[in-house]
Design a protein that fits this description.
The chain is of the alpha/beta class and 431 residues long. The protein has helices spanning 5-8, 12-30, 34-43, 64-69, 103-119, 138-150, 162-172, 181-194, 216-226, 339-347, 384-402; strands spanning 83-88, 98-102, 127-131, 153-155, 176-179, 206-210, 229-236, 241-247, 254-256, 261-266, 280-286, 297-303, 305-306, 318-319, 324-325, 330-332, 335-337, 352-363, 366-375, 407-411, 426-428. Helices cover 31% and strands 25% of the residues. The strands form 5 sheets. It has a 9-stranded mixed sheet, with helices on both faces. Helix 8 links the parallel strand 5 and strand 6. Bound molecules: adenosine-5'-diphosphate and zinc ion (ZN).
Length: 431
């Protein structure tokens, strides 16, 4: 039960009617929580007053600070004894937040992940290997139950131990792998070390990658290394985790499951909706969650709606890959820079390897950006002239993109420190 045309191919009109009905129910449910209960009472908000779905704009936003401020139970809309699980965000940008689920919520989430995997071409006869942290991080159990719901034989491989990952893939004939993109490039290095060819020596058919920002260039590289398509998966723990938005076989942006989330894109300064197709902050409202409904959550993730319809027949709108979080951006010498802009430039240069880190420092009262870059295994050389020329190419191209000339430090393939979970792309050592 993973292709659900009754939800996935609705006309706009019918979808909005469904959303309105579900939003009203969600508001009534949310009003049972101490936090929304007080907010709604104070602002005189009642579910039946909502005339149509566009009036969601009259409701207050919810931020990460709100969730932290009412930690742990302030957003709870069911009795504590109804809860069966909690998850936390990975805490990329500060203290983690906690999200609670009851049985209904977990079933709904698993169904969404199953639909997502199905959209990306996974089928019940496939073997699915989930290479990511289990535990509080939502990518582990989220994909586990979603893949089981779809009916795949699911290997809870968890993160790390690359040699064992490769052995599992070979022993059980893994067809679909989910992993974070920065890990897959490392895994490829271990394939090379072991002399195992990921194309010829495995049964891999497709990859699912997500949980961290990555450029189109990085996706294409990963596809080149493993010889299969890689599908972008987006989610965040506040909206369950994975299974919020997903690429279908056409890889033309991420379908967002609008029967279960109301999707808005707003200008992060004015908080007004952006013009159609403009980049802004993604704001999401849960439509099928009981324990902890969240209304108008400011994700801080930046994206835009993509125009047109998708040949797959799904009518939900598609969003562009996330270009970064509003709080990822750093300012250096007056220029606003997103790490993904640097990544895009680096990954277009064939001599560049798969890993990099941006280091920001203050030297003699001046801010300085240094990019430490691994060179590619194939190109690796100790010819000073060639290295110098690559260094200059990188510095120029990055300057053209972000308007600041970086220092570039080239390092050997595999030399940069690796983190267990999501890659850390910026080390800001300024005061
Ligand atoms: P944290 O906010 O602490 O990282 P989560 O583990 O919930 O906690 O991570 C969710 C965030 O990860 C999203 O808000 C987004 O910034 C990022 N993310 C998830 N999937 C993707 C993706 N496919 N592309 C880009 N960023 C992503
Ligand atoms: Zn599609």
């Amino acid at each position: 039960m993973c292709w659900q045309p009754e939800f996935e191919t609705l006309s706009r009109e019918r979808l909005e009617a469904l959303q309105l009905e579900r939003l009203r129910a969600t508001m009534a449910q949310a009003a049972k929580s101490p936090c929304y209960g007080a907010k709604f009472a104070e602002q005189g908000i009642a579910p039946q007053d909502l005339a149509d779905i566009s009036r969601i704009r009259d409701l207050p936003f919810t931020t990460k600070e709100d969730l932290r401020g009412h930690f742990p139970y302030g957003f709870l809309a069911v009795p504590r004894t109804d809860l069966v699980r909690l998850h936390c965000s990975s805490g990329t940008t500060g203290n983690p937040t906690v999200i609670f689920h009851n049985r209904h919520d977990l079933a709904s989430w698993a169904n969404l992940v199953a639909r997502s995997l199905y959209a990306a071409g996974a089928r019940p006869h496939h073997v699915f290997q989930n290479i990511c942290g289990y535990g509080l991080f939502t990518g582990g159990l989220g994909f586990q139950y979603g893949a089981e719901c779809l009916g795949m034989l699911t290997i809870p491989a968890a993160a790390g131990n690359s040699r064992r990952q490769i052995k599992l893939m070979q022993d059980f004939g893994t067809n679909v792998v989910h992993a974070i993109p920065s890990y897959l490039t490392r895994l490829y290095d271990v394939f090379v070390e072991l002399g195992v060819d990921p194309v010829k020596d495995t049964r891999l058919e497709r990859l699912v990658i997500g949980a961290e920002p990555h450029s189109e260039e990085t996706r294409r590289r990963i596809e080149g290394l493993f010889g299969v398509k890689a599908f972008n998966s987006y989610g965040l723990s506040e909206m369950n985790g994975p299974g919020v938005a997903f690429e279908c076989e056409h890889q033309n942006g991420l379908h967002i499951w609008e029967d279960c989330f109301v999707v808005e894109i707003v200008n992060p300064e004015t908080l007004e909706p952006v013009a159609e197709g403009e980049v802004g902050e993604l704001v999401l409202t849960t439509l099928d969650r009981q324990a902890m409904p969240i209304i108008r959550y400011r994700t801080r993730d930046l994206t835009r709606f993509l125009p047109g319809t998708c040949p797959c027949g799904r009518t939900s709108r598609r969003i562009d890959r996330i270009t970064g979080r509003s709080d990822d951006m750093f300012i250096i010498r007056g220029c606003n820079v997103f790490p993904i802009q640097v990544e895009k430039v680096l990954m277009e240069i064939p001599q560049v390897g798969n890993d990099y880190v941006i280091v920001l420092e203050t030297k003699e009262d001046n801010d300085q950006m240094t990019i430490e870059v691994e060179v590619s295994r194939e190109w690796f050389t100790d010819d000073y002239g060639k290295l110098e020329s690559l260094r200059r190419t990188i510095a120029h191209r990055v300057r053209d993109e972000v308007l600041v000339t970086p220092h570039v430090r080239l390092v050997e393939p595999g030399a940069l420190p690796k983190s267990e979970g999501k890659a850390v792309r910026v080390r800001d050592l300024r005061g």
